[in-house]
Design a protein that fits this description.
Elements lengths: L1 E5 H11 L14 E7 L2 E7 L3 E8 L1 E2 L3 E6 H9 L6 E6 L4 E6 L2 E6 L18 E6 H9 L18 E6 L2 E7 L4 E7 L10 E3 L1 H12 L4 E6 L3 E5 L3 E6 L8 H4 L12 H11 L8 H7 L3 E5 L2 E6 L7 E4 L1
Antiparallel strand pairs: 1-5, 1-7, 2-3, 2-6, 3-4, 4-17, 7-8, 8-9, 10-15, 11-12, 11-14, 12-13, 15-16, 16-17, 18-19, 19-20
Helix pairs in contact: 1-2, 3-4
């Protein structure tokens, strides 16, 4: 077996699937990525049993074949190679693969590819399908993820980002019962029948990171148990949390009318400047005191931080 691929192409697809390679696992094969050579196309796959990904690129090979390599180690090796060159893979014995690129040579252990779990989308026969700008979708989910509950064990129905369609809008919503974040965009054609789904928080973070690196559209396929994001050369699938949508307006107190409105960027900048009073405080005390007091009067919102024992900051918006 001999496989040759452009370093830049391999680095691109490894970056795409890396979020599905667990750093720790009781199953060593899950820490490996699977190489599948067929014709003039190389496909690399990874899974942590909750998320799975595969990406393809052109390659030259003497014959088709399958082999595995340790994912994190391989990602580091390829990222450090000159991106304008090529890398050659050759089998050296039953469980060794040799990598050669320019003056660099590595020999890595390869586990039996038959042990690698089969990739299963879990989408069923008729998922809802639509196209959307990758960066738009990443922004939609990432903007609300901060409000999610951080524990899937305590409150699984609040762990992640809820995606659903409401009156022609594609909505992303998260809450931990103390804070709630909601962001919506026009629903793309074809997405009107999408079921309400809960994407796990860890999956949201990985998905958003990957989508931000994609130029153009992705095809989204949504079913009750899984959601898939794909391009012509890549696919990422994540399992969903099987919990019904809580009545969020009952989770948090209903606000009938806003007490005041403020420009979000100005408010963020004011909070960040006020937080500077904690720069010389011990981490424990800063954690105890890091709260903002808000006072609205005569069209001015004052953001205050600190206490009588510390420096005090007042920022007006």
């Amino acid at each position: 077996m001999r496989l040759v691929v452009e370093v830049a192409n391999l680095n691109r697809i490894l970056s795409f699937i890396r979020g599905c390679v667990p750093t720790k696992s009781t199953l060593p094969i899950l820490q490996h990525v699977l190489f599948c050579g067929s014709g003039s196309t190389l496909t690399v796959r990874a899974t942590n049993l909750e998320r799975e990904a595969e990406a393809s690129c052109p390659a030259q090979m003497d014959d088709g074949g399958f082999f595995t390599l340790p994912g994190e180690m391989l990602c580091g090796i390829v990222a450090g190679l000159p991106q304008g060159g090529q890398i050659c893979f050759q089998r050296k014995g039953a469980d060794r693969i040799e990598l050669v690129s320019g003056g660099s040579k590595f020999t890595l252990r390869s586990l039996d590819p038959q042990e690698f779990p089969a990739l299963v989308t879990g989408l069923g026969e008729d998922p809802t399908s639509f196209n959307i700008e990758a960066k738009t979708l990443a922004e939609l989910m990432n903007n609300v993820a901060f409000a999610s509950d951080g524990s899937i064990v305590v409150k699984p129905e609040l762990y992640g980002v809820r995606l659903y369609v409401d009156h022609g809008k594609l909505v992303a919503l998260s809450t931990d019962t103390f804070k709630l974040a909601k962001h919506e965009i026009e629903c793309p054609p074809g997405g009107e029948t999408m079921p309400s789904v809960l994407v796990p928080l860890e999956g949201v973070q990985k998905i958003a990171s990957i989508l931000r690196a994609i130029d153009g559209c992705v095809t989204v396929r949504v079913a009750v148990s899984a959601v898939e994001f794909s391009t012509e050369t890549s696919r990422l699938t994540t399992k969903l949390i099987d919990k019904p949508m809580p009545e969020y307006l009952k989770v948090l107190p209903k606000i009938k009318q806003a007490d005041f409105t403020v420009h979000p960027v100005q408010f963020r900048d004011a909070v960040e400047r006020a937080m500077l009073v904690y720069s010389n405080v011990t981490p424990v005390k800063a954690k105890q005191q890091k709260e903002a007091r808000l006072e609205a009067k005569d069209g001015i919102l004052t953001v205050s931080m600190g206490d009588s024992d510390l420096d005090v900051a007042h920022e007006e918006v």
